[in-house]
Design goal:
The protein is an all-beta fold. It has no helices and 17 strands.
């Protein structure tokens, strides 16, 4: 996922890519490997040997060094959701995965439901922001692997979709 974040009046281009055991975070060309752990009302973010507790409230981020004003300027969903393998066409079954850890706040599908490309499957809350996980293509839901209220890790399968041709659904 790529986004532009305004922190205390300075805009930063950020890219977050899930990897086994955490994330790669790129900020203005610098690359960091990070792990996160959800706490009651905050997120612990570990980068290298250093751990930061992050608490978001409205447009304020509370960190060890103080309070920062934050504003999400732009989001690019490009690559935001991870598909286990590239679909080979109609009939292919793909596992749709979470791109980040979070709490499931809404499951918008049931097994057997017909979905269209881009339709919301699951809504996750991470760091007080809601993130929609869309269908990778037109198809039929074969499995829903999460439930509302559940906490999921990055790269967790949330649903399996059997892809259909554009006119078949």
């Amino acid at each position: 996922m790529r986004f532009r974040l305004d922190v205390d009046g300075e805009q930063r281009d950020i890219e977050v890519q899930p990897i086994a055991g955490g994330f790669v975070i790129r900020i203005e060309g610098a690359e960091y490997r990070a792990r996160t752990r959800l706490a009651m009302d905050s997120v612990d973010v570990r980068i290298g040997a250093k751990t930061q507790r992050l608490h978001l409230q409205g447009n304020e981020a509370f960190l060890h060094d103080g309070i920062h004003r934050v504003r999400l300027v732009e989001v690019s969903e490009e690559g935001a959701d991870v598909i286990e393998s590239r679909p080979s066409g109609p009939g292919a079954i793909v596992d749709v995965r979470s791109s980040m850890p979070g709490r499931v706040v809404r499951v918008a599908i049931t097994p057997g439901a017909h979905v269209r490309r881009g339709e919301t499957l699951v809504v996750l809350e991470a760091m007080k922001m809601q993130n929609e996980i869309p269908a990778p293509g037109d198809g039929v839901v074969r499995q829903v692997a999460v439930s509302e209220g559940e906490t999921v890790t990055a790269d967790r399968v949330v649903a399996s979709i059997e892809l259909r041709g554009p006119s078949a659904s």
